[in-house]
Amino acid sequence: MFDFPTPIQPATRTTGPVSGTPFVAADANLPFALTLSNREPAALMSGQAGPSVIGRFPTLAEAMLGAIGHADGIASDAAPQLLAILDREDRLVLAGAAHAGAVAWCHPVSSSVEARAVVTEASQLRAQAGRAADWREPDLTLRLHHRADLLDARLVDPLWRAFTARALQVAA
Fold first, then answer.
1. Least packed by Cβ within 10 Å: which of 38, 44, 60, 98?
2. Is the Cβ–Cβ distance between 34 and 85 less than 8 Å?
3. Which 3-state string (H, E, C) describes the chain?
4. In whole angstroms, what is the distance from residue 17 CA to residue 55 CA?
């Protein structure tokens, strides 16, 4: 889900400061980009489904706080949103599901063996979602896709795996 061959698309809505966090939306030189996945059907069909940048931050901790600030603006009856923090090279650093003021961060895989298992399981879930769509079960289809996306969110770039795992331990 987060490995797109196209560059990150700029946010289509105006971005502003996230309460309580340093935020500089215009400075593209900041190393961490907080992004929101684009699951709009039109974007998926047109190939423009790259993530939208919500904000850029100088540190991972500030990007995590920015994600929590973004989650504060999500209504409690809204669907969870998948957020990802990417580095300057568009590598996945951390991802999670934001919903009603909280972010459930996905713990990164610890090895390439675990990464292969996660990819296999996510692929199986997407196949099940395809069958559910054929059976006209839209709720089940959405749940299966969401579970597969959460598994994909664990596929942190190998460069960042140990650092991110430690950052999540410290944050807990």
1. 44
2. yes
3. CCCCCCCCEECCCCCCCCCCCCCCCCCCCCCEEEEECCCCHHHHHHCCCCCEEEEEECCHHHHHHHHHHHHHCCCCCCCCEEEEEECCCCCEEEEEEEECCEEEECCCCCCHHHHHHHHHHHHHHHHHHHHHHHCCCHHHHHHHHHHHHHHHCCCCCCCCHHHHHHHHHHHC
4. 9
CA dist., res. 78 & res. 98, Å (int): 10
CA distance 52 to 156: 18
Q: Assess contact for 144 and 130: CB atoms under 8 A.
A: no
User: How many CA atoms are closer than 13 Å to the CA of 148, on its beta-carbon side?
Assistant: 19
What are phi and psi for residue 128, nearest 5 degrees?
-65, -40
Averaged pLDDT, 127-152: 94
Predicted TM-score (pTM) of this structure: 0.79
- Residue 31 CA from chain centroid, whole number: 16
Residue that the structure tokens 């390439």 belong to: 112
Q: Bridge-partner residues for 60, per DSSP?
A: none
Give the list of residues 6+ apart from residue 55 with CB closer than 8 angstroms, or none: 15, 18, 23, 24, 25, 33, 34, 63, 66
Per-residue pLDDT reduced to its tens digit, 117-127? 999 999 999 99
d(CA 60, CA 21): 12
